[in-house]
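User: Second chain of the day. Same drill as before.
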Amino acid sequence: MKKPKASIIIPVYNVEDYLAECLLSAISQDYHNKEVIVINDGSTDNSSSILKEIQRKHPELIIIETANRGQSNARNTGIDAATGEYIIFLDSDDWIEKNTLSRCFEAIVEHNVDMVMFSANAFADNLPSSATKSFNYNHPLQIQNRKLPSKDYFSESITLKNYIVQPCLYLYSKTKLDSVKFLPNIIHEDNLFTTNLLLKEDNLNIICIPDKLYNRRIRPDSIMTQVKNNHHINGYFSVAENLLSLRSIEDEKQTTAALNTFTQNMIINAIDTCRLAYNNHFPKIVRVKSRQLLMQISIRDIKFKTIAYIAIPELTILKAYIKKTFKKNDTL
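Assistant: Same format as last time:
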């Protein structure tokens, strides 16, 4: 039987220091029925030269040149170009283990699923080793090695407070989910894309394996660590708005409750990001937007915590202070 084809999609923008390691980890997979699609998103450093040099040695590498339109558009371009039955994303400053694809397809065959989740190692780049402590890419034991409907996986992950949204940490069936795309021109789009994948189909099954197949680089200028601004705040608000549109009257109460909980998390994240962006101040527009979004959530699913943070966003200042104090005490 012919093995299914995987499309590895890699958006690239100004990552000359890490690009070769990333690409070679994809090209050198021990699973051979694959294509590696690189979208060069208008890089202005030496990334283009590095891509051409590697393509000379590995002509199977597919390179698509575009103007700079952001990671979401680059990934969507890759999805449209992909000819594989399955898709996996790889960020151009990270790298994957040699057996990533073979291990995922082994799980697909063994469990007859449409999507495979896996774990990751986080490592610091020009940061102290303590910088990786807050980045947990390990799935809870309760959902590992269990075949689950994707909606149940979503609900259980939210309940366990360990919902991992990074698109680079799973392989999924393009055949079933070809219509799911990234929302362009926002930050934090992973929250929406992954949730959309999981809730799109009623008959989508998933397996979560414990293997650490991905290596995520934490660096000072990444979206996760950079200084916050309005773009970050509005990204969370856009995700919350679009999550509300995913609700369906056909969904079970458990799924709807989990979606409403996750939406509230995005609103709180927007408020907390506002704290960082405005140095402990909260503009009226953020307060009003938070209230407007909360009013669209079923009252039975609204958490007291959400009401408190929206009514008194200054509570995020107290929360940050307490968290910082406990962290400081832990290091003494």
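The CA atoms of residues 28 and 98 lie 6 Å apart.

User: Great, on to the next one.
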